[in-house]
Every structure is written in C-alpha cells, then in structure tokens.
Write a structure and sequence with these properties.
Blueprint (H helix, E strand, L loop, with lengths): L2 H12 L4 H13 L6 H10 L4 H8 L8 H13 L3
Helix pairs in contact: 1-2, 3-5
C-alpha cells in the first residue's frame, strides 16, 4: 500500500463519533505519524481499533489503559497534541 493510500486510510479511521477524539487523532496523523517508528505506527493503528468510549476514558484520564503499548501511545499523543 502506498504511503498516500495508507495516510488516507488512517485519516478515515481517525474520524470518530466523538469530536474530542477527532481533535486528538487528526492533527497527530498530520503532524507526527510520519516520525513514528514502524513499531509505533503499528501500535497507533491498533489504538484506532479500540472503541470510542474506551479511547475517550483513556485520553480524558478517567481510566488507564492496561495495555502498556497502547497506554504509551495515548501518552505520546497527549504530549504531542496540545489539548
């Protein structure tokens, strides 16, 4: 899959049912995704498969993600995107 197609697919996956998640994911894909390692990119893509309520709880600090890889990606996104 070409990088352009992959980014288009990622941007589509970033469009969530919650605006709060859209404003975190969309800028992250535009500004930071390309700088991630291949392993981090895979983790980010796995993060996008999670349910919106779960993601919302993690990003708003209501709950901690128990998966260490996903939790580190949540923290990375929160640190990169100023909320």
């Amino acid at each position: 899959m070409s990088l352009v197609n992959k980014k288009a697919r990622l941007k589509w996956a970033c469009r969530r049912g919650m605006l709060e998640l859209d404003v975190l994911f969309m800028p992250f894909v535009d500004e930071a995704y390309d700088q991630l390692s291949e392993q981090e990119q895979v983790i980010f893509e796995r993060l996008l498969t999670c349910e919106d309520p779960e993601l919302f709880a993690w990003f708003m600090g209501h709950e901690s993600c128990e998966d260490p890889e996903l939790n580190s990606m949540v923290q990375l996104i929160l640190n990169r995107v100023k909320v």
